[in-house]
Specification:
Rossmann fold; 4-stranded parallel beta sheet; 9 strands; globular
Length: 307
């Protein structure tokens, strides 16, 4: 894998994905062997939206590689509050860091930011657009549990605004995977995403109910209805809580089903699922560290760190 930035999952070939996942497995096996790899590296964390897992796992990842982070902090405590443009922000931050992790509420923000800087930019979520590093850890979790070829995966919930869904769907076109999308009609995949999947030859089916497809699934990827993306609170209330699973729901599933969730969850997965063999969402979250270590290794390998 040789990329200057990671903006969208569509950049990644099967070979790219497998290279990162293989490297993540190496790191997982012996993390101590990687502890001094990037001793002078500084990773800038620029998060214009809240984050727990993505921000903390990138922070942990670079530190486990021997580097450190510099953090923009909240929007309210930064010069963004004074009206500074994103272009100016990243050009300034470029002078402090060897790579930038950017989360922004506007779709396309990471792509635009990458045009203004020479250090690698990693898209940590751009509105309802993409979240490619999340996709890499999702794929790692799927590979570790069931494999990536001959896969039947159900992706359920907010498919319209869910950037993790859009990235994962794109990446899965590199593998022999049947993708089942389960959502209310109002939250189905955006037309442009459906078009791209069909153009890529993806095996895609859309459903409004889980029950009809659940027994054939190897993986059920559950997503939160994203209240913050809805332009109208009334529209959110119409769909809130419609798609929930508990142990009773899963009684019709295969015993080998893997249940995933990018987190945070609200009420989509009942706590009674947490202690079962189905649940892989906390494992999925923990996988963010070795996978992001692997991703940083590939991106920083082309950078003169500490210059």
């Amino acid at each position: 894998m040789r990329q200057d930035h990671l903006i969208t999952a569509t950049q990644l070939s099967r070979a790219d994905i497998e290279a990162v996942l293989d490297r993540a497995a190496e790191i997982d096996d012996d993390p101590a062997a990687w502890s001094e790899r990037y001793g002078r590296a500084v990773l800038a964390l620029c998060f214009f939206e809240p984050s727990t897992r993505t921000k903390m796992s990138f922070d942990t990842a670079i530190k486990r590689l021997g580097g450190t982070t510099t953090d923009m902090g909240t929007v309210e405590s930064s010069s963004v509050k004074k009206g500074e443009s994103l272009a100016d922000t990243v050009r300034v931050v470029e002078g402090y860091a060897d790579a930038i992790v950017l989360r922004h509420p506007s779709e396309g923000a990471a792509k635009m930011a990458a045009e203004f800087v020479d250090v690698p930019v990693i898209n940590a979520g751009d509105g309802a657009g993409q979240h490619p590093s999340q996709t890499l850890l999702d794929l790692y979790t799927i590979r570790e549990n069931v494999g990536l070829d001959g896969l039947s995966i159900g992706i359920m919930g907010d498919l319209k605004y869910g950037r993790t869904v859009h990235s994962l769907a794109d990446a899965l076109t590199n593998f022999d995977a049947r993708q089942h999308f389960i959502s209310p009609e109002s939250l189905r995949l955006p037309r442009n995403v459906r078009f791209d999947l069909h153009q890529a030859g993806a095996q895609v089916r859309e459903h409004t109910a889980l029950e009809s497809v659940l027994p054939e699934l190897d993986v059920l990827y559950v997503t939160r209805i994203q209240r913050e993306r809805f332009p109208d609170e009334t529209e959110y209330q119409k769909v809130a809580g419609q798609y929930q699973i508990d142990l009773e729901t899963l009684s019709a599933a295969s015993d080998d089903l893997t249940v995933m969730h990018p987190l945070p969850r609200v009420d989509e997965i009942a706590p009674d699922v947490d202690g079962t063999p189905y649940a892989a969402y906390f494992e999925q979250s923990h996988n963010g560290v070795p996978v992001r270590m692997a991703l940083l290794d590939y991106l920083l390998s082309n950078v003169e760190v500490g210059q």
